[in-house]
Write a structure and sequence with these properties.
The chain is of the alpha/beta class and about 280 residues long. The protein is built from eleven helices and ten strands. The radius of gyration is 18 Å and the shape is globular.
Length: about 280
């Protein structure tokens, strides 16, 4: 069942505004070089413009775009490299007014087609994006060495659950061997758990190669839940990433589980948990 975007948005904002009455203190996370971000896919039921407003109300300053999210009610087009210069300019102004930086873009297709890949990189460059999240084809890595160097943009290999191509960190390590340090991993922690892998052990295997993360906690039913309430060991992962001296974006993502008002409430719980643990680790 599809819900009207406007009514769904109003319900989200009402809860988000109430939840964010107290100012968020992200100073410890920033001290660690950690950026907690909204993953646009979490709000795929509504538009990007609406999601930006919710992100601002939740006190988040960072964002990961999704190429299939609709831009706005007025312009219900996909948010990707097909956006016109005018719509891109308006979108950049919307993010700037909200005090939000777009750090990541994905999951997006990258292949050995240079012209198509350049469109993705051009869009990322125009939007000020630092990292493209992808599951590149096996024959694309030499081209990605070239493009990451030329554009100054990193590529982070995402892991969907087994049997997807990159479900296991060992596969990612093999794929990036001999290639640019600008090509590494997007650690999707919930998908590791869904694949029956230990997320902390996966991070240890990828030490030095983690560029960004789709940071999730999942329960026994493989649903996304607030940090600390599932079996993915969020605290242990944060400790491991500090040990690795990781600096980068943690994109909060819900692919299943809570929706509507409850989704915003649970994201608020994630933020509080993340900030509390960051404070414990920042000493």
């Amino acid at each position: 069942m599809k819900f009207p975007l406007t009514s769904l948005f109003l319900a989200f904002v009402a809860v988000a505004t109430a939840a964010s009455a107290a100012a968020r203190d992200d100073s410890a996370a920033e001290k660690l070089g950690w950026h907690l971000a909204t993953k646009a896919y979490t709000f795929r039921a509504i538009t990007l413009y609406e999601t930006i407003d919710i992100t601002h109300e939740l006190g988040l300053k960072y964002f990961e775009l999704n190429p299939t999210q609709k831009l706005s009610a007025e312009n219900p087009v996909n948010t990707n490299d097909t956006l016109t210069p005018e719509l891109r300019a308006a979108l950049k102004a919307k993010f700037a007014a909200a005090g939000i930086k777009v750090t990541n873009y994905g999951v997006v297709k990258l292949t050995n087609d240079e012209a198509a890949d350049r469109k993705v990189f051009d869009f990322a460059k125009d939007m000020g994006i630092e990292t493209i999240v992808s599951e590149p084809t096996a024959d694309s890595f030499d081209l990605l060495d070239k493009l990451t160097a030329e554009y100054g943009i990193k590529v982070a290999i995402h892991n969907h659950p087994q049997p997807s191509t990159y479900f296991d960190p060992e596969i990612v390590l093999k794929a990036i061997q001999g290639h640019s340090a600008s090509i590494g991993a997007c650690a999707d922690t919930g998908h590791w758990t869904r694949s029956g892998l230990n997320a902390v052990d996966c991070l240890k295997k990828l030490a030095g190669h983690v560029i960004t993360s789709h940071f999730k906690d999942t329960n026994e039913e493989k649903k996304d839940v607030p940090y600390g309430q599932g079996k993915t060991d969020i605290k242990g992962m944060m400790e491991e990433l500090k040990r690795q001296n990781f600096h980068g974006t943690f994109s909060m993502e819900y692919e299943s589980g809570a929706k509507g008002e409850q989704l915003v409430n649970e994201l608020k719980e994630c933020i509080a948990f993340f900030d509390r643990e960051a404070a414990n680790l920042a000493h």
